[in-house]
Write a structure and sequence with these properties.
The protein is built from six helices and four strands, in the order H-H-E-E-E-H-E-H-H-H. It has 163 residues and is α/β, with parallel strands linked by helices. It has one domain. The chain has a four-stranded mixed β-sheet, covered by helices on one side. Strand 2 and strand 3 form a beta hairpin. The longest helix has 24 residues.
């Protein structure tokens, strides 16, 4: 994958338009609107995660789960980052239903080990992480602007007209 700011901006435009159509202008509202649009639930859970892991997206056969570390200094940024992984359909780590019997601690450890291996040793996730982080930054910036300037629908139309 080639890193593309244009791809990020286009994705944020689409997400904001979906949110505006649903009259949502908060991050939680955006996530609800995206889940509805995809016809696939997105569940948000808090958990104690391994050191260095702020959040994870877990893909189940019937839903996506965003796990956010408790006591994060920037909860919204991490939540928007994980939403970026969902929006861009990054492979992530599929969690099969058979793993539901495994303890949360063991599952978090296994997932963090896999993430460490692919990001640090293999370098495979670097582009996905960049894309999710760039998406989070632009989305949060757009939501801040929308929430200080007026109705969500008019802000999306105005922002798209300006480019």
């Amino acid at each position: 994958m080639t890193r593309s700011h244009r791809r990020i901006s286009a994705a944020v435009d689409v997400v904001c338009e979906i949110a505006a159509d649903a009259d949502r202008s908060t991050l939680d509202g955006v996530i609800e609107a995206i889940a509805r649009e995809r016809r696939r639930p997105i569940v948000i859970e808090g958990a104690v995660l391994p050191p260095g892991v702020c959040g994870q997206r877990r893909a189940y056969p019937d839903r996506d789960v965003i796990v956010i570390g408790i006591d994060l200094p920037n909860y919204d940024r991490t939540l928007a980052h994980e939403l970026g992984h969902i929006v861009f359909r990054h492979d992530g780590i599929p969690v099969e239903s058979s793993l539901r019997a495994v303890s949360e601690e063991l599952l978090a450890y296994l997932l963090s080990e896999r993430t460490l291996q692919s990001a640090v040793v293999d370098g495979a996730d670097n582009d996905d992480e960049w894309e999710a982080e760039a998406f989070a930054g632009q989305l949060l910036q757009r939501l801040r602007r929308a929430n200080t300037r007026g109705a969500a629908r008019s802000i999306v139309s105005f922002d798209q007209a300006l480019g």
